[in-house]
Amino acid sequence: VGAGYRPEFYVGVTRLSDRKLRLINDYYVPRMIASLFAVAGLAFIFSCIYFEVGRPSAHVAAAFWCFSPDILAHGPTIGPDIGSVAFGLLACFTLRGYGQTPSLASATTCGVGLGLANLTKLTWLTGFVTFPVAVLIARRVSGSHGCRWRSLCHLMWFWVVAVFIINVGYLFEDSCLPLGKYSFCSERLGGVSASPSELGNV
């Protein structure tokens, strides 16, 4: 196994060797589920634009989504990209709700949205920083001033809910595992004399 070799390639080749032409039958249900993410993304983007701007703009956004070459190409594939975009839109929609009516309930909903987005792709880890910054900028621009301690409590609760949802998605596997005991398949995170193709610890 060389540097940069992704383990899912080995899994795929092994599965193909075992199933032969019967492998085609294994793709029907996963591809249908993956296509549902594209439909969910359409619903989320329509809702976001509809409540923020209005119906005409929402129809335009929906048309762009439906006829986007990227969406058409990646929609039926069994990959995380469309699901990541769809649940990212959901997370942004819940963030909008919190920005309009800051409360513990809306902070909970926003945490659930970000947690689900992170389950599709860990790129959304950036939301743990960018979402609070976006709320802060929006409040500064609008000139609204609320209780700082209440906002801080909402922020902490938002983080807790999002992390909890991520752990639920992984069935709490290795939750609270010390970083030193975690195996990284990375040369930079593998420690001294680690090979990029082997697991190593920090």
Describe the structure.
By secondary structure, the protein is mostly helical. Helices cover about 65% and strands about 0% of the residues. The chain is built from eight helices and two strands. The protein has helices spanning about 5-20, 30-50, 55-65, 70-75, 80-100, 105-120, 125-140, 150-170, and strands at about 185, 200. The protein has a two-stranded antiparallel ribbon. Helix 5 (about 80-100) runs antiparallel to helix 6 (about 105-120) and helix 5 (about 80-100) packs parallel to helix 7. The mean pLDDT is about 80.
Give the overall average pLDDT.
Answer: 81
- Biggest beta sheet summary: 2 strands, antiparallel
- Give Rg in angstroms: 21 Å
- Number of separate helices: 8
Could you give the count of β-strands? 2
Beta-sheet strand percentage? under 5%
| Molecular shape | flat
Walk across the major sheet and give the strand order: 1-2
Q: Give the % helix.
A: 55-70%
Q: How widely separated are the two ends?
A: 21 Å
Structural class, by secondary structure, is: mainly alpha
Low-confidence stretches: none
- SSE order in H/E notation? HHHHHHHHEE
